């Protein structure tokens, strides 16, 4: 056996021991690494780095939210003009039909004696029939309205003018003092107020007024 062979024979056990020790060390490290948070941290770190690298090219600024569109303001609806031209005092503006009495009475603009002698007078400072607010009609108890006391709550009053046909339904019957001005006060909706002297059989100037308050229920 030469010197070289003797040298190799001596070093082989040493190499085996080194390799065995290294293998055991790697196995022990692998077991320790897998049972600690180190492996979880490393996996998370690698996923984070690879995900970041893959997403860097796709990062964009968030799109700005569209500004709300301003809606055009609604146009205010103008009230319908029923009477383009105001009537003259004493003018016949239409008829009042009372179905309960089967009576048709002419209406004149104004409540002076001149108008009341001819028919029903329309109080000139009130709106015309059919318009929103309080339209006031008056008449003598011993002529046109001699049977008005037969008309009560729930009965109809129909006014026909150049603007159309307007049907009212009596909502309230009132008896007030002749100086009571609440009869002519404005109303929030289309109303017809019909007034005459009361009591109907009173001799001389009657102290009270018989009032019918009716709401507009139909327009034609």
TrEMBL record:
GO terms for molecular function: hydrolase activity. Pfam families: Sortase (PF04203). Coiled coil: none annotated. InterPro entries: Sortase, Sortase_D, Sortase_D_1, Sortase_dom-sf. It comes from the Bacteria. Gene3D superfamilies: Sortase. SUPFAM superfamilies: Sortase. Keywords: Hydrolase. This is Class D sortase.
């Amino acid at each position: 056996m030469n010197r070289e062979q003797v040298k190799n024979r001596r070093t082989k056990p040493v190499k085996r021991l080194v390799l065995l020790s290294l293998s055991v060390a790697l196995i022990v490290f692998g077991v320790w690494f897998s049972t600690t948070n180190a492996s979880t941290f490393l996996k998370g770190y690698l996923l984070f780095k690879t995900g970041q690298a893959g997403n860097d090219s796709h990062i964009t600024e968030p799109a700005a939210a569209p500004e709300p569109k301003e809606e055009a303001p609604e146009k205010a609806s103008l009230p319908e003009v029923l009477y383009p031209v105001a009537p003259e005092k004493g003018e016949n503006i239409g008829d009042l039909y009372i179905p309960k009495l089967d009576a048709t009475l002419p209406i004149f603009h104004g409540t002076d004696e001149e108008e009341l002698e001819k028919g029903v007078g329309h109080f000139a400072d009130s709106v015309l029939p059919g318009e929103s607010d309080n339209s006031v009609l008056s008449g003598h108890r011993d002529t046109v309205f001699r049977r008005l006391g037969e008309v009560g709550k729930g009965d109809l009053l129909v006014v026909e003018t150049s603007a159309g046909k307007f049907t009212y339904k009596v909502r309230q019957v009132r008896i007030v003092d002749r100086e009571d001005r609440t009869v002519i006060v404005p109303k929030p909706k289309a109303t017809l107020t019909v007034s005459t002297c009361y009591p109907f059989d009173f001799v001389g100037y009657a102290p009270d007024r018989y009032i019918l308050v009716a709401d507009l229920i139909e327009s034609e």
